[in-house]
Amino acid sequence: MFEYLPPLNAHNLPYPDTIHPIVVHFVIAMVLFAFFCDVVGYFSHNARLFEVSWWNMFFATIAIFIAIIFGQIEAGLAEPYNAVEPVLNLHTLIGWSLSGIIAAITGWRYVIRLRDPEKVPVPYLGVGLLLTCLVFFQVYLGDELVWVYGLHTVPVVEAVKAGILR
After folding, report:
1. Is 90 exceeded by the pLDDT of residue 28?
2. How far is the C-alpha of 120 from the C-alpha of 29, rounded, in Å?
3. CB under 8 Å to 97, separation ≥6 — which residues?
4. Which of 23, 98, 144, 166 places its Cα 20 to 30 Å from the Cα of 63?
5. In this structure, what are the phi and psi dihedrals at residue 31, rounded to the nearest 5 degrees?
6. What are phi and psi of 119, to 5 degrees?
7. Average pLDDT estimate for 131-150
């Protein structure tokens, strides 16, 4: 069965480069921009910004599941060594948690939008701030996986295959 799978390249991937970071950057941007629009809309009383925020959260909810699928595939192909496993496990746990959190917040946002599209309550903004902080922490962990531990970089892949990293 494995002979039907595409061969892995120097990054230990069946495709040219990692897809997870590409998709996840859309999620990051949409969540942060949605929060920004809600805050600015709240203080400026500009209801059009609430509509922008809603659509950003809606598409972020869809995109995060795509990001998680590719993240799981790429984490599995990374052959993580001992030093990277705790960070990768925490990144994975928070990523799955964020998918549920973002979906729940988007559902709440939908109810708010149905009741009064001209306003956003302060508690929702507080939850948006907490979500923003969680997203920033998740970005930090993702950056650490690439820039400190070098997952899917050619030298690290070669070192793992040679048995230098365990």
Report:
1. yes
2. 20
3. none
4. 144
5. -65, -45
6. -140, 155
7. 95
At residue 124, does pLDDT exceed 80? yes
Tokens 């946002």 label which residue? Answer: 109
pLDDT tens column, 54-87: 999 999 999 999 999 999 999 988 888 889 999 9
What DSSP string runs through 97-116?
HHHHHHHHHHHHHHHHHHH-
Nearest to 28 by CA among 77, 1, 64, 71: 64
**The pTM is what?**
0.90
Say if residue 76 is exposed, middle or buried (CB neighbours under 10 Å; 0-12, 13-18, 19+).
exposed
Q: Summarize the confidence of residues 144-152 as an average pLDDT.
A: 91
Mean pLDDT (the chain, rounded)? 92
Q: What tokens does 121 get?
A: 């309550």
Which amino acid, residue 25? H
Q: CA-based Rg of the chain, rounded to a whole angstrom?
A: 19
H/E stretch holding 74: helix 47-77
Identify the CA nearest to 34 among candidates 116, 143, 110: 110
